[in-house]
Each structure stands twice: as C-alpha cells, then as structure tokens.
Amino acid sequence: MSKNTMTRADAIDYAISAVEHTREYWETDGDWPSEKSDEIIAVLKNMHAQLTKPRAKAVTKARKANENLAKQLHAAVVERGDGMSTKDFVALGLPEITTTQKAAAVARVACELGLLTKCVNGKAITYALA
Question: What is the CATH number of domain 61-129?
Fold first, then answer.
C-alpha cells in the first residue's frame, strides 16, 4: 500500500487553483455568478491559511514536572559532589522517581537543560555536573 503524500493543505491549494482556472468558464456560461467563485476562493484561502500557520510549541504538564524533578536531581548531584547513576536517583526516595526508567528520563531532561552531563564508562552510565 502506498502512502498518500498529498496533505490537506496541498489539496486545498489545488482546489483554489481549479476554481481560479474555471472562473472564466463559469462567467462566460452565465450559470454561475462570479461573486460565488470569489466567495469560494476566499473560504478556501482561509482554510489553507489555518492549515499552514505555524504552531507554537506547547510545553506539556509532564515536561514541566520532569524539569522540576531535573532541578532536584541537579541539587542531589551538587550535594553529593560526584556522579550518580539512575539507581542512585531512585534511592533518593523522591515519590515521583520510583524506577530507573523514570530516573533516566528525568536525567535526560536535566542534560537537555544543561544541568547535568551524561558520562558513559563502559556499561556504567553516570550523571555529573555539567
């Protein structure tokens, strides 16, 4: 099965072109008033603008929560003074971080924020101050 590569915005753009090109036929035929084609084009252009306008990146509640947890992990690493593993983060006893997977996800956010840096030593992964 082939994937459809035409988007809704492309289809509306094509429809605008079709209406503009057939406007002459409609006007000479006399069955279709020209203001109707202008109205159709205006509606289609509005729809196209809505589909193609850039969207603001929204920060989710989970991301905000993970950013706050990342700051807490940063504080724990500062207090300890050296690198910590995900098991160490779980051992901190934070109620939101109960698994090493969650600890790794929050540590990744801390790395993205520039609070921590990921250190790989063979199979051992620790997170230290950036």
Answer: 1.10.10.10
